[in-house]
Amino acid sequence: MTSSSPQSNAPPGQSGWRMWLAIVILGIGAFTIVTTELAPIGLLSAIAHDIGRSESAVGLTVTLYAWIGAFSALLAAVALGRAPRKPLLIGLMLCLALSNGAAMLAGSFGLLLAARACGAVAHGLFWAVIAASAAQIAPPRHVGLATSIVFGGVSAASVLGVPLATLIGQESNWRIAFGAVGALSVLTAFGMLAVLPRLEQSQARDARAALGAVLRRADLWAIYLATAFAVTGHFAAFTFIEPFLREAPGMQATMVIALLFGFGAAGLAANFLTGIFIDRYLRPFLMLALALMTLSLMVLGMWGTLIGAAGIGAMLVLWGAAISAIFVGFQTWILRTAGAAAMPASAVYVAIFNAAIGSGAMLGAWVLSLSGFAAVMIVGGLGGAVSILLVAAIGRPASAPQAALQP
């Protein structure tokens, strides 16, 4: 066990405020890359109309992105273990900028898919190293807080990124939305250049052996499996949230944007609470979040047409808060359990997470083609219910100081 000194995990010479600023910049990077991934969710109708494809077909831009991201995350575990973290993260943000620029200029559905595929490679590599990098910068006893800040970018992508992309698509053009995210990617790269410390490379001599050791650990696979069901359920429903809201009785276009903002705002608030409680109450907090996600999706699926805009808004708030805590909770649990194997363990986590996103989007499209939006929400809730059972069967997480092993 390493020392629990607050600065024992931070790079040498890194002051307190600069350390936390670096973690915030990583959170902004997470915001940018997740906005890129999820932007089509709020633009499905606009893209489908412009390129002459169905909404379910356009939803494949999310599926393809996620699956390629899953593969590249595993590639990162083998190929990037010794790569310098700071230039790697900066380069990946610039690759993301190029991907968004290409998507903005795409003249066909095939070119749009190709542009998204390029961004997905950067996405998987980015997520494979970002959590371990935050854990390396932060004091050991605040790994959960650092993770919640980074994953605050995920919630912010929901509260600002997806709704703003939707607004731009409605008021101007979906292509402008991709261009704006590309510009933000460039600005984030410059921010990383200015404030990220020099991070030590992994000391693992054999990245393949380290990855193989992670893949043989039953304790990590239990968490991975619970994550897979929760994320698959969430994205089966969330991929089609925009058309679901548009079809709700009495729903107006401006109200759809407001409800998406409410979803994300709840996620940001939950991120704050998660940062306070996650290091001490990881499993109960995670189970509560999974229960709220399951409840809200079931209510939307069974009674979404009866509860009105206010009722739908309330369920979206619960759902948004819950999924934010779920993302932070599972990632923190992986970091605690993996210890010195944080890099390959995070890479596998990201691969499974992104594979679940793609599977969820495809599952949602399939259910939608058979039954409709209500059934999609119910299937999403079932994914959360299975995850609850799996988390209940897993042993208690390691305490925060035990997670302080160098990633």
TrEMBL record:
GO terms for cellular component: plasma membrane. Keywords: Cell membrane, Membrane, Transmembrane, Transmembrane helix. The keyword tRNA-binding does not apply. The chain crosses the membrane at residues 20-44, 64-81, 88-114, 120-138, 145-168, 174-199, 220-241, 253-273, 285-306, 312-335, 347-367, 373-394. It is a multi-pass membrane protein. Pfam families: MFS_1 (PF07690). Residues 22-399 form the Major facilitator superfamily (MFS) profile domain. GO terms for molecular function: transmembrane transporter activity. It is found in: Cell membrane. This is MFS transporter. It comes from Massilia violaceinigra.
